[in-house]
């Protein structure tokens, strides 16, 4: 059994809000075999942690921990510093997919440990929508293990460390909630990855771990909720390109796990991370329509489309991929918890019986400090800080 593991890292700013959440997500394909795709974690963000300018962010999963201590204004009135530690099991798992088929005999588990230093600079103090510059460096260690299913003769990649650095500009952002009431973001990013070990691996050296990879991407996002009707819409696009991409630095598209990564590249009905891309464009849209007077029950139609330039050795015929889905959600009137179940259909997903993949999912959030449905909704509190990898 393989589980998609949460691996968070602060990327937007030191969060000024007190947050205590429990998040759970699970998806299951109805056609074809795939790894189990799920996340579950406890999330705490505590400002004034032992000191007025210190913030603790902590995410705890069953076999993984991610933490950061943020020092507000340590490097100047508009410049914060973050020191992070993370590590645990299954965070660097790799699952091989080729033409819609999951290959457990070429997949393997990976554990990790990392330390990071982040600098967050606010360009527009006092403005309603924050513009942050981010510089982040980290040292990441990966340790790989095979399984009984691994094909004889398959050589694992070398255990290695990776020195990564990221720079970006983020205007606005998104709170770490399953369905925030309001958010907007425009952001652009660069990341360089430099590995201590490289070279061929796999079956007779048929794949390569690159010594360095470079990623460039951008995102636009808008979430808005009507004040009276509580109808909401959510549109999001992400586009990216790479230089010297390999299986560990390629963008992974597919599935629907909204809080499993900072930039979720979701396509309903596909396996989670089914598609590996050197270059891509992905657009998602959904709306939430209340079904009762209390606005507690809702129906949620959704859709996605993507253009994909596949990583060599992992592709399929046709660059265009699309999916649609329908969800049903319930949110407590207090806003303290919510649950959503959905069904997705991937139109171009390749399966044994032709094109068309299907999946179901369930997602739950408990907000221990909710003050009203949807939590804080000010744009100047819509901050983005989620997992650092795709």
Structure description:
This protein has a single domain (19-381), classed as membrane protein fhac: a member of the omp85/tpsb transporter family (Porin, Beta Barrel), CATH 2.40.160. It is globular. The protein has strands at residues 19-29, 37-46, 54-61, 64-71, 79-88, 97-98, 101-102, 109-122, 131-145, 154-155, 160-173, 183-195, 199-203, 207-209, 212-225, 232-243, 251-253, 275-290, 297-310, 320-331, 337-351, 354-367. It is built from no helices and 22 strands.
Structural class: mainly beta
Which value, in Å, is the CA radius of gyration?
Answer: 20 Å
CATH-derived architecture: Beta Barrel
User: What is the makeup of the main sheet?
Assistant: 16 strands, antiparallel, barrel
- CATH topology type: Porin
According to CATH, the homologous superfamily is membrane protein fhac: a member of the omp85/tpsb transporter family
Number of DSSP strand runs: 22
Q: Estimate the mean pLDDT confidence.
A: 91
Strand content: over 45%
State the domain count: 1
- The helix/strand order is EEEEEEEEEEEEEEEEEEEEEE
Strand order of the largest sheet: 1-2-3-4-5-8-9-11-12-15-16-18-19-20-21-22
Shape by Cα distribution: globular
In CATH, what is the class?
Answer: Mainly Beta
Distance from N terminus to C terminus (CA atoms, Å) equals 21 Å
Number of helices: 0
Specify the helix fraction band: under 10%
Which stretches are poorly predicted, pLDDT < 50 over at least 5 residues? 1-10, 372-390
